[in-house]
Write a structure and sequence with these properties.
Order of helices and strands: EEEEEHEHEHEHEEHEEEHEEHEHEH
Strand order of the largest sheet: 6-5-7-8-9-14
Largest sheet: 6 strands, parallel
Distance between the termini: 19 Å
Number of strands: 17
Radius of gyration: 20 Å
Number of helices: 9
Helix content: 25-40%
Shape: globular
Structural class: alpha/beta
Strand content: 15-25%
């Protein structure tokens, strides 16, 4: 396991299915709804859960199975499936497209989160570093003032507010620069472009921390298995910090691509529809202390992801 914890407990052995559920050493498994299960984090959760014996039964859904923006559908699904926990990975994450698709971004990131929060079920809600404006010069703690610059960031902040207002027992995890072996993401795009182009212009003045989705998935399982539910906002990414240019340099180095020249450019030179925070490094000390975990460096996560992608 990438994340080390001294308190994490895993239950092994055979399972027995009954009319009341699945028995694990005399315990009825608790049903966990995972929304957005076809996304990067959702797929990593599925992979992680397969490898780890837990006292939970995961029910994976995406928009074609459960429309979280439909309150009645959410209420019916949660009741019908006796859901006791929700992991909300569903999100509108097309940062630039959200600037012209504001209604749908808010519908998924805000209304969907509110519907899930109103269910009365314990919820782990995934949020983003883009709730900050990037004017800091030290890692953001959970209680730092928020001031999102984009529609995406604003809609995610509204989702956070809905979870805090309507859920009785909630955990919000803000993360940053997420990538994995699944779906579309920066690492996979750079791998393709590095092999297709002679040179690439990469933004070199935005600082943050890449996060391997498999490590975040493991962190979520640690939280689920913790003996005590600890409501609150937490920050999670891999450790360290870099720029998009530094991130690309490391991808190029580890993938042994030598024929593409990387050119550092400024944010002003690389115009995008959405404004992004110039600095969005997250302080992870709270989650490390609360759950007694040791988080890997971002370079370590990248090595493990590239190994899977190249196998």
């Amino acid at each position: 396991m990438a994340i080390y914890t001294g308190s994490n407990k895993h239950l092994g052995g055979t399972e027995t299915v009954t009319k009341k559920g699945t028995i694990f050493y005399g315990l009825v498994q608790k049903n966990v709804l995972v929304t957005g299960a076809n996304g990067q984090l959702g797929q990593e959760l599925q992979q992680m859960a397969k490898k780890t014996d837990t006292p939970f039964r995961f029910i994976y859904t995406d928009a074609d199975v459960l429309d979280i923006t439909d309150a009645a559908q959410v209420e019916h699904f949660i009741s019908e499936n006796s859901i006791e926990y929700i992991i909300n990975c569903a999100a509108y994450t097309a940062v630039d497209k959200a600037e012209t698709d504001e209604e749908l971004a808010y519908k998924i990131n805000y209304t969907g989160a509110e519907n899930l929060a109103k269910s009365g079920v314990r919820i782990i809600h995934i949020s983003t570093d883009y709730v900050f404006d990037g004017t800091a010069n030290v890692p953001y703690k959970e209680d730092a003032p928020t001031n999102p610059l984009s529609v995406y960031g604003k809609s995610k902040l509204r989702g956070e507010e809905a979870v805090r207002e309507f859920a009785d027992e909630w955990i919000i995890i803000r993360t940053s620069w997420l990538y994995s072996e699944f779906g579309n993401n920066f690492v996979k795009t750079m791998l393709r472009l590095l092999n297709e182009r002679d040179e690439l212009n990469i933004v070199a003045d935005q600082r943050g921390t890449p996060t391997y989705a498999a490590d975040l998935a493991e962190m979520i399982l640690v939280i689920l298995e913790c003996d005590e539910w600890k409501s609150g906002i937490y920050h999670f990414s891999n450790l360290g910090e870099t720029t998009w240019f530094g991130f690309t340099e490391k991808i190029k180095e580890l993938a042994a691509v030598n024929d593409c020249r990387l050119i550092p450019v400024s944010t002003d030179e690389y115009k995008t529809a959405a404004v992004r925070p110039m600095y969005s490094v997250l302080d992870k000390s709270k989650i490390q202390s609360a759950f007694r975990v040791v988080i890997p460096q971002w370079e370590d996560g990248l090595k493990r992801c590239l190994k899977k992608l190249q196998n």
